[in-house]
Amino acid sequence: MNKNHMSKNNLYKNHMNKNIKNTVFNCSVKVEDTYFYISLDKNFFESVPWPVALHNHASYEVHIIKTGEYKFYIDNIYGEEIILRSGNCCIIGPNIYHSKGNALHEGSCRYIFRFECYPSSGKVSKIVQCLNIINKFYLLKSCIKEIKLIEEIISEFENRQIGYMTAINNLFSQLILTLLRNISGKREFSDSEDKDIRFKTMSDDRTTTIDGFFVFCK
Fold first, then answer.
1. Facing residues of 31 across strands?
2. Helices (H), the chain
3. What is the pLDDT of residue 107?
4. In which band, very low, low, confident or very high, does the pLDDT at 49 lie, cut at 50, 70 and 90?
5. Whole-angstrom Cα distance, residue 160 to residue 145?
6. 3, 106, 131, 185 - which has most CB atoms within 10 Å?
7. Spatial separation of the C-alpha atoms in residues 183 and 202, rounded to whole Å
């Protein structure tokens, strides 16, 4: 076994050890010259009845809204409020304080997962440079393909047919690549360009509080 393969395995083991407490599934996928370590916790599959306070972590956190509306505070609870609607996606950068997002309507549904990435060569890759476009957060719209891929991932978990782990890894590779292409294509927008996402400050709604959030609701 060569040194590069050994160092990759050690890196993956260290990553899993860091996240094992709250993780139900980890996988490692490679896109071009960059490894992505993806973590799912139980909130990927079920609703959560308790509030989640403002927090941060070293991973990117991806929120993709299937139906309904969700309200987020990112970086500062007293600053900008973001409302995402069906088909919207928000990628929150590492070490950025954020809430998990409150469902504004019963029956809302969204998907969350986290990832970290490391170039295989140890040098900054084009993919890492692409992710550097994300400052505090990055917004995308019309994420129909991403939603379809996530639904296929969940179906693989539920049905557990032969080779389902391979299928899940392949689907996550496609999901990460789709997000990267959308970011590199600068498919971002502001509320002045599209009303699916709204930005407002606390002065618009002084009574807003952070309530519970829902990750996967039916």
1. 34
2. 3-19, 126-131, 144-159, 164-184
3. 83
4. very low
5. 22
6. 131
7. 29
